[in-house]
Amino acid sequence: GTQNGAFKVTGDSLIHIDRIKSESGTGVTIKDIAEDNEGIIWFGHDEGISSIDGELVTNYYESDGLISHDVWCIETDFNGNVWIGTTEGTCIFDGQDFTNFDLPEGKIDTTVGVSSTKMIHSILEDSKGTIWFCTTAGLFSFKDKKLKNISDEVGIQTNLVSKIIENKKGEYWVSTSKGLFHLKGSILTNITE
Questions:
Q1: CA torsion 103→105→109→113, rounded to 10°?
Q2: Which helix (H) or strand (E) element contains residue 153?
Q3: What per-residue confidence (pLDDT) applies to 193?
Q4: Backbone dihedral region for residue 2 (phi beyond 0: left; psi -120 to 50: alpha; all else: beta)
């Protein structure tokens, strides 16, 4: 994924996937890529989302029900849903319909070029099926239809959370505007101090 769209490697060749485009037919900037359980590749970009199933490319836009065209992250879950994080919040695509998923509003990050009170920086489904959201309102988890504010629970001292990854031990690394944190159970350690 690049500022000039999506490419795939076939043998020794790099091939541009020119059917991933905006609703008006122009090129897109790819911001995130995910693969679902069926092998479909999903792209989040600055004009919506797109999927590739074999050779079939499908583009989805706000006119199809997407919460915002400005997509920053995309994640697929074990149930076949596509989670989409945008500058205007989160929505879920079940293959047929888009459903908005409400998260608390945060604060605009004045240190970066693009930010909003509903900005979603990253979404992760972990090995236990919990969905994690990195937002301008903090770090949240969603499991069994319950949304938790993890930032408040473990004491992350900033609302500006940009990324979370899970390691092989089931522990988490969380990147924020105040540094890098290690989260093991409910114990949070700032490793940048």
A1: 70
A2: helix 150-154
A3: 64
A4: beta
> Residue 55 has which token pair?
């050779």
Tokens of 68: 């915002």
Separation between Cα atoms, residue 83 and residue 85, nearest integer Å: 7
73 and 120 Cβ atoms separated by less than 8 Å: yes
| C-alpha gyration radius of the chain | 17
**Is 145 strand, coil or helix?**
coil
Query: Which pLDDT does position 113 carry in this prediction?
Result: 86
Q: Which two tokens stand for residue 60?
A: 């989805």
Three-state DSSP state, 154: helix
Which residues, 6 or more positions from 184, have their beta carbon under 8 angstroms from its beta carbon? 171, 172
User: Which amino acid makes up residue 53?
Assistant: D
Q: Are 40 and 53 in contact (CB under 8 A)?
A: yes
User: What per-residue confidence (pLDDT) applies to 95?
Assistant: 94
pLDDT digits (tens, 9 = 90+) for 41-52: 999 999 999 999
CA distance 107 to 4: 30
What separation in angstroms does the CA of 129 have from each of 57, 108, 132, 144, 170?
Answer: 28, 29, 10, 9, 12
Distance of CA 62 to the CA centre of its chain: 17
Positions of the chain with pLDDT under 70: 193
